[in-house]
Amino acid sequence: MMDSCNCIEPQWPADELLMKYQYISDFFIALAYFSIPLELIYFVKKSAVFPYRWVLVQFGAFIVLCGATHLINLWTFTMHSRTVAVVMTTAKVLTAAVSCATALMLVHIIPDLLSVKTRELFLKNKAAELDREMGLIRTQEETGRHVRMLTHEIRSTLDRHTILKTTLVELGRTLALEECALWMPTRSGLELQLSYTLRQQQNPVGYTVPIHLPVINQVFSSNCAVKISPNSPVARIRPLAGKYIPGEVVAVRVPLLHLSNFQINDWPELSTKRYALMVLMLPSDSARQWHVHELELVEVVADQVAVALSHAAILEESMRARDLLMDQNVALDLARREAETAIRARNDFLAVMNHEMRTPMHAIIALSSLLQETELTPEQRLMVETIMKSSNLLATLINDVLDLSRLEDGSFQLNIVTFNLHVVFREVLNLIKPVASVKKLLITLNLAPDLPEYAVGDEKRLMQVILNVVGNAVKFSKEGGISITAFVAKAEYLRDARAPDFSPVPSDNHFYLRVQVKDSGSGINPQDIPKLFTKFVHNQSLATKNSGGSGLGLAICKRFVTLMDGHISIESEGLGKGCTATFIVKLGIPEKLNESKFPVMPKVPANHIQANFSGLKVLVMDDNGVSRAVTKGLLLHLGCDVTTVSSRDELLGVVSQEHKVVLMDVCTPGIDSYEVAVQMHRLYSNHHERPLLVALTGSTDKVTKENCMRVGMDGVIQKPVSLDKMRNVLSELLEH
Amino acid sequence: MEVGQMQRRLAEFTKSMFMEGFLDGQFLQLQQLQDESNPDFVVEVVSLFFQDSEKLLNDLTLALDQQNVDFKRVDAHVHQLKGSSSSIGAQRVKNACVVFRNFCEEQNLEGCMGCLQQVKQEFYLVKNKFDTLFTLEQQIVAAGGSIPAMEITSF
User: What does the entry's cofactor note say about binding and number (chain A) (predicted)?
Assistant: First the structure.
């Protein structure tokens, strides 16, 4: 048997008291240790959320084992058996294991637990923040609601006053204001006038304040609502109703927009603005302050008011404009009906004039010209001539007026025919010759060699134009000459700098005739030139006794020329320097010279003559070589077969029956042509075989003529002989 | 110088001859007689006139130089000259001849001498003019153009 026992003996003899206290402490520790897991289990069971159950279990185990250890420790104070020791050791070992495990595990768990706490804190903050924001949004929402409501009220009317009144009322209501006032700028723009207030107040409406106060400038220069002092002039609207402390005052500018401020695709410029001032006062003696959202409300309302006012203004304008337009419409309608009546009246008048007036005119002219042919005393002749001239003038006037009316109506149409262009010019010359020779004016006509002989166009109107232009030239020239040139206009002539809008197009079957009439007469002042083509306008400086006419001539010419796709212009360097009239017209080129289509004979007046004397054998006697040559040339041109002799003897030697005509010069002194005639008569007693005897004489006295007739000459021609004269005489002779 | 310009010059020149009285309507008649069958009629007649007239003027000078002037002869020559000039339309020459004839009828020697000078002067003037005219016409024809037809009416 071993002497030493396994019981652990204390090193020093145990004090009984100490042991007792240890014993009790251990007991309570064990108790506590056992009860803690119980509590834990109880609470964990209660909470559903706790995630670390097994941790608890572990913890519980650790605590239980610790408790067990302490409990078993109780037995170790006294003598205990080996079993107890073993149990004790087992318990301690287990406890050690578990507690180490728990310690290890806690290292993991405690940070987690801590972070849970942090998260909780974070969430709480977030919740507080959201709460705040919710509050803000709610406030804004309410403001918005108010604004919408206000706007609705304001914009529900287009009447200015209602808009403003409503604004004030609604604002007052929404914000619970004590006073709300609107100051409008006066007409002069130098003052603000109190125009509208919410409640009745002492200061009558009409109270003004100068516009250049610093407080007002401050408000006008910002587009926000600005807090102002209740003592500023604009805010001293009401007497202090409350005790002493007036409420806060806010002022905001209201832009007054005009129609002209709205540009299309652009927002209105707010630079040169007129503003009105809105002043809002919180109730006095309340501790209320202007909140931001309230200020925002005020700003928005101010803008809306501006828009509403401008809409009202626009509406007013458009109503006024519409009324104006309606009046104008009525007036225009009336005018149109009157014009139509006038036109109808004029057309009726023209229709009547056309026939009724022309008929008597025609009768007058025809009968006067017949009268002229009869035997009249000089005074009677003078009277008849005057009648003819006056009636011609009147007839021209009627025709001009009618033509012009038809031209302006647009009912005029050109009469297109194929005609002889050269003949037209010559006819104009013939017509103008008498007047020109009276005035001793030299008229030159120059037709370009490439000018076509025949053209397609309105012959009568073209002649009218040329005659008018040339007639004017003659009329206004007292001396000198008139030159008429006509040629085919080439492309470079056509684009005239003076007529930039005249752009003619040359083509194959048309040509442009350019006629230029230059005169050396009294000229025209360049300033008067534009008026020339105006109807009925007489150039005062040129109105002389001779210038008759209605002033329509050039106006009609211009219209005719325009109808012919042409252009007419007049130039003059000034008074006394003559003037140049130029016109271009478009004429057609005739396809083929179809003989049957138009007359072959040129219209030479009073012409029943035989144009062709081809083969006619003529004998000419003249001792003057030059005269002889000229007469021969004349007759050759007429187609005759000419023989010339220079003396009587030669004549008698050459003459034969073949010669149909003998022309002899009778003014040569020394040769008695009369004898020749007598001899000729003797030679050819048979009337039919005898050639016709014609005397050429330079003298104009009757004696020569009588002598010629006495000796049996068949005809007398006075030198100088013109082609026409020769032709006429010959044809007359040959007719018999 | 191109053809159009030359033609215009010709027209102007001819017109000036009329305006200054060198020519009258008779010349126009002559121009009218010129055609394809007779293309140089005017030139021929005018040249003929120059030849004849030169001769006549010489004869006149001789005749008036005599001791005893035979006015009848002088008158006959002047008559011829008058006839020729009026045939071609040389107006001024013709007018001078008319005056000359008056002096011949009066048998005024001084007057006649004066007139002779006058006639000569006019003759040479118109001759120069004609030379220029014909030169212009030749230039135009040489350049390929044609003489433009001209019609003039006068008193």
Answer: Binds 1 copper ion per dimer.
Note whether B84 contacts A445, CB cutoff 8 Å: no
Residues 9-48 in A contacting B (C-alpha not used; CB under 8 Å) = none
**Interface pTM (ipTM) of the complex?**
0.84
Domain assignment present for residue B142? The answer is no
Question: For the segment B63-78, what is each residue's pLDDT rounded down to a tens digit?
Answer: 888 888 888 888 888 9
CB contact under 8 A, B29 and A721: yes
Chain centre distance of CA A715: 79
B30/A633 CB distance under 8 A? yes
- The verdict on whether omega for the bond into residue A720 sits within 30 degrees of 0, i.e. cis, is yes
CB atoms within 10 A of CB A706: 11
Residue A677, H or E segment = helix A673-683
Residue B124 belongs to some domain of the structure: yes
pTM: 0.40
CB contact at 8 A, A558 and A533: yes
CA dihedral over A290, A291, A294, A295, signed as positive or negative: positive
Range of the domain at B105: 3-31+42-135
Q: How far apart are CA B18 and CA B6, in angstroms?
A: 18
By the CB < 8 Å criterion, does A473 face chain B?
no
Residue B151 falls within a domain, yes or no? Answer: no
Residue A532 CA from chain centroid, whole number: 31
Using alpha carbons, list the distances in angstroms from residue A299 to A23, A143, A294, A644: 85, 12, 9, 124
Nearest residue to A229 (alpha-carbon basis) of A242, A212, A214: A214
The number of CA neighbours under 13 Å toward the Cβ of A295 is 15
Amino acid, single-letter form, for residue A600: V
Tell me whether residue A683 is exposed, middle or buried, using C-beta atoms within 10 angstroms of its C-beta: 0 to 12, 13 to 18, 19 or more.
middle
Say if A612 is an interface residue toward chain B (CB within 8 Å).
Answer: no
Within 10 A of A662 (CB to CB), how many other CB atoms are there? 26
Tens digits of residue pLDDT in A717-729: 877 777 777 888 8
At residue A478's C-alpha, the angle toward residues A721 and A572, to 5°, is 115
Reported as a single tens digit per residue, the pLDDT across A21-62 is 888 888 888 888 888 888 877 877 777 666 667 777 777 788
Taking the CA of residue B20 and the nearest CA in chain A, the distance in Å comes to 11
Q: What CATH number has the domain bearing residue B95?
A: 1.20.120.160
Q: How many domains does chain B have?
A: 1
Under DSSP, is residue A191 helix (H, G, I), strand (E, B) or coil? Answer: strand
Q: In this structure, are residues A581 and A473 in contact, taking their beta carbons and an 8 Å threshold? A: yes
